[in-house]
């Protein structure tokens, strides 16, 4: 079986790429180990994701947003503060000329919207299935797939690694990845505060790690509480009242008292960065290319810009009947993604390092920086552009322009 593009990984990034490529009339294969609606699926679990406006536009342009709209909670404002310090910063969507700074969507709803589009598309889906063997020649990639106890062989002109931070495809092509363990764990859950959140997203930095509250429907909030590994293990064993008391101590009473908490799930945090974003006949996207700390919520949005950029280059090659796995396309992809990728990685890693530094002199400087940011509209506009990938060449899909 011969394909133009084989996508390994049907999570949020891989499935989005598959949907984006459907109008191109190419032969597309998608290989995913775990069904999207299975409890064990790591992408489409009970977490939520904050989408930038650029990401919303990508999903809207490929026809996925209508199925997500009813589940999406707009972010009207962003409030950033440092616990026990005077510094804070606020970003208001109206001041930026936007209807919202972004949107919070449940991962399960996103998975359902993406895979419902895939089920009606002319894409060959291998699921549940895993890649068991890979070999590349000058003209194609030979892929052996293990599915239902059988071995299936397919060929593809281009293979896309969208299989996460521990990417099998990336390793098979001999591409190393630097992993920096932050020695932190994010405890993610849902809380109900006494007061309505007014669609404000909060990022509060504490000595043991950042705390984020993202608005949800019904007045609820997604809580992302970053703790040391040992503290996270303790927090999982606390009673609901103990846990809420600790969140209250860290966040304060801006939303009144926290009344209820949902199931708590731990996620270890690290920075994973591949040495390259391509190899002959292979492109690496999403968490396989860069797995980020959740601070500032830029990881998935960066992965979606990987998707939009790659899909545009593949569309351009399809119009001229060119090889989608050509060295020219891979080189263009690397160059296009370099500045956006490097900037976001440096920004998120820098935030983690800056706000985890215990020195009082550093704390004073960062709080002065927060206040200066709050008073400088150009700085807010610059951050808004960074979060939406507005610097450099913006992909068509992120501008609302269809590929065909």
Topology:
Layout: E1 2-8, H1 12-21, E2 28-31, E3 48-52, H2 53-61, H3 65-68, E4 73-75, E5 77-82, E6 88-92, E7 102-106, H4 107-119, E8 124-126, E9 130-136, E10 141-147, E11 150-161, H5 168-172, E12 177-193, E13 200-206, E14 209-215, E15 221-228, H6 229-237, H7 240-251, E16 258-261, E17 265-274, E18 278-279, E19 282-284, E20 290-291, H8 299-319, H9 327-356, H10 360-375, H11 377-388
Parallel strand pairs: 1-2, 1-11, 2-8, 5-13, 11-19
Antiparallel strand pairs: 3-7, 4-7, 5-6, 9-10, 10-11, 12-15, 12-16, 12-17, 13-14, 14-15, 17-20, 18-19
Helix pairs in contact: 1-4, 1-8, 8-9
Features:
FAD/NAD(P)-binding domain; 9-stranded mixed β-sheet; 404 residues; 8-stranded mixed β-sheet; alpha+beta
Structural class: alpha+beta
Count up the domains.
1
Major pleated sheet:
9 strands, mixed
Instruction: List segments where confidence is low: pLDDT < 50 over at least 5 consecutive residues.
Output: none
Number of helices: 11
Q: Mind telling me the CATH superfamily name?
A: FAD/NAD(P)-binding domain
Kindly report how far apart the N and C termini lie: 26 Å
Kindly estimate the percentage of residues that lie in beta strands according to DSSP: 25-35%
CATH fold-type name = FAD/NAD(P)-binding domain
Radius of gyration: 21 Å
CATH architecture group name = 3-Layer(bba) Sandwich
Helical amount among residues, as a percent range?
25-40%
Mean pLDDT, nearest integer?
Answer: 89
CATH class: Alpha Beta
Count the beta strands.
20
């Amino acid at each position: 079986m011969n394909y133009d593009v084989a996508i390994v990984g049907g999570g949020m990034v891989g499935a989005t790429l598959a949907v984006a490529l459907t109008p191109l009339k190419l032969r597309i294969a998608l290989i995913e180990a775990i069904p999207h609606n299975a409890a064990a699926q790591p992408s489409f679990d009970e977490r939520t994701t904050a989408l930038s406006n650029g990401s919303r536009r990508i999903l809207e342009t490929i026809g996925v947003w209508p199925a997500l709209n009813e589940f999406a909670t707009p972010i009207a404002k962003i409030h950033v503060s440092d616990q026990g310090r005077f510094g804070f910063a606020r970003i208001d969507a109206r001041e930026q000329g936007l209807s919202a700074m972004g949107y919070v969507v449940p991962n399960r709803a996103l998975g359902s919207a993406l895979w419902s589009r895939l089920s009606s598309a002319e894409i060959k889906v291998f699921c549940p299935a895993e890649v068991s063997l890979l070999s590349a020649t000058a003209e194609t990639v030979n892929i052996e797939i293990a599915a239902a106890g059988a071995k299936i062989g397919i060929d593809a002109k281009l293979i896309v690694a969208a299989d996460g931070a521990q990417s099998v495809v990336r390793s098979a092509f001999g591409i190393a990845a630097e992993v920096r363990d932050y020695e932190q764990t994010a405890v993610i859950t849902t809380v109900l505060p006494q007061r309505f959140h007014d669609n404000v997203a909060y990022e509060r930095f504490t000595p043991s790690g950042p705390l984020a509250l993202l608005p949800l429907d019904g007045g609820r909030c997604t809580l992302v509480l970053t703790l040391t590994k040992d503290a996270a293990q303790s927090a999982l064993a606390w009673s609901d009242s103990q846990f809420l008391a600790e969140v209250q101590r860290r966040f304060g009473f801006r939303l009144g008292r926290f009344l209820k908490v949902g199931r708590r799930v731990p996620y270890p945090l690290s920075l994973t960065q591949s040495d390259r974003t391509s190899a002959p006949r292979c492109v690496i996207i999403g968490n396989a290319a860069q797995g980020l700390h959740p601070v500032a919520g830029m990881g998935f949005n960066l992965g979606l810009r990987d998707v939009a950029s790659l899909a545009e280059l593949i569309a351009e090659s399809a119009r001229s009947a060119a090889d989608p796995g050509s060295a020219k396309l891979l080189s263009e992809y690397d160059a296009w993604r370099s500045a956006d990728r490097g900037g976001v990685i440096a920004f998120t890693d820098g935030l983690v390092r800056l706000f985890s530094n215990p020195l009082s002199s550093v704390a004073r400087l960062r709080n002065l920086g927060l206040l200066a940011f709050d008073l400088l509209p150009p700085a807010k506009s610059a951050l808004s552009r960074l979060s939406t990938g507005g610097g450099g060449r913006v992909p068509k899909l992120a501008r609302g322009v269809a590929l065909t």
